[in-house]
Amino acid sequence: MERVDRKLGVLSALPLLALLAVSFLAPLMVIAIFSVMPQKVFSLLNVPDFSSFRVIVEQGYYRSLLWSLGMAAVATVLLFLICWPLAFGMAKVFRRFSLVLTVAVVMSLFVSENIRLFGWVLTLMKGGLIEGHLRAWTGVGFDSPLYNVPIIVFGLVYVYLPFMLFPLAQGISMIPDDARQAAADLGASRARILFEIDLPLAAPGIVVGSLLTFVLAAGAVAESKILGGQAVIVIADDVETAFTFGQNWPLGSALSVLLILIIGGLAVFGVSRVDLDAIMGRRK
Predict the structure, then answer these.
(1) Residue 34 lies in a domain
(2) Is the pLDDT of residue 14 over 90?
(3) How many Cβ atoms are within 10 Å of 10's Cβ, its own excluded?
(4) How many domains does the chain have?
């Protein structure tokens, strides 16, 4: 009977698997094949030559990849430090009030990311909301913090905060209160409870939140364009330029493949160390 149910399950899943293959795997395969085509061709019927990967090294496109990964890593660390106390409060302290915080954070996602970032531009620009009013009231202004790397990282932290906060809160909620209370009764300091109980037991939420924010931040482009004024060129911008203005599909595909391989490798490494059944509540 179990074999019959398994076969029926596989047959029922075939339409969905076919849809995923067409909508997800097929475009990735096209990108992968285009990445080994000669420069500036628009057909897959060519002899592979891997010239795009040589161009990435020779013309310094790898710098945009390093900038994207570096800023994503910094934003992920900052988000963890910012979200840990808030997530701990949502999971262990605020209780019913956590719903209010959740709604407040989720409502920010109802507004377009670009609109929110332009709001920061109007707030922080020279003569903007803050500097303009400060100059009018005190006669003293300040230089705009826009159009540099720190403001790009700020934008990443601002936009992707929910993607770190909620997995982190879920991971912290998995920490038994009895374990923390027992450690405190035995004389453990708060620091020891944090490093030996809270962080290890909340590790699944930490890994999921870190992966989500890092993956999204590494492929982000709006923050560097709107807040950073392209002070640095990120990998997503190079990919967009190669596919559009540059009309160099193989180069854009090669850049995409590099980003997919790096992020995909990190995602597989992280997920392999996470108990997804415990996170989903399927196993206590």
Answers:
(1) no
(2) no
(3) 10
(4) 1
Task: Say how far apart CA 185 and CA 74 lie, in whole Å.
Answer: 37
Write the CB contacts of 124 (distance below 8 Å, at least 6 apart in sequence): 130, 131, 144, 145, 146, 151
As a whole number of Å, the end-to-end CA separation of the chain is 28
% of the chain with per-residue pLDDT over 90: 24
**Does residue 27 lie within any of the structural domains?**
no
The answer to whether residue 9 sits within a structural domain is no
CB 78 within 8 A of CB 157: yes
| Angle, CA of 182, 187 and 189, to the nearest 5° | 100
Question: Which residues, other chains included, contact 193 with Cβ-Cβ below 8 Å and sequence gap of 6+?
Answer: 180, 183, 184
Q: Is residue 241 part of a domain?
A: yes
Residue 235 to residue 259: CA distance in whole angstroms: 8
Number of CB atoms found within 10 A of residue 99's CB: 11
Range of the domain at 96: 55-279
Which residue has better confidence, 44 or 35?
35
Query: Position 108: which residue type?
Result: S
Q: Token pair 């990735």 is at which residue?
A: 28
Give the confidence band of 275 by pLDDT, cuts at 50, 70, 90: low
Give me the torsion for CA of 56, 152, 228, 222, rounded to 10°: 70
> Which value, in Å, is the radius of gyration of the alpha carbons in the chain?
24
Q: Does residue 279 register a pLDDT over 70?
A: no
Residue 231 CB contacts under 8 Å (≥ 6 apart), including other chains: 147, 148, 149, 152, 224
CATH number, residue 115:
1.10.3720.10
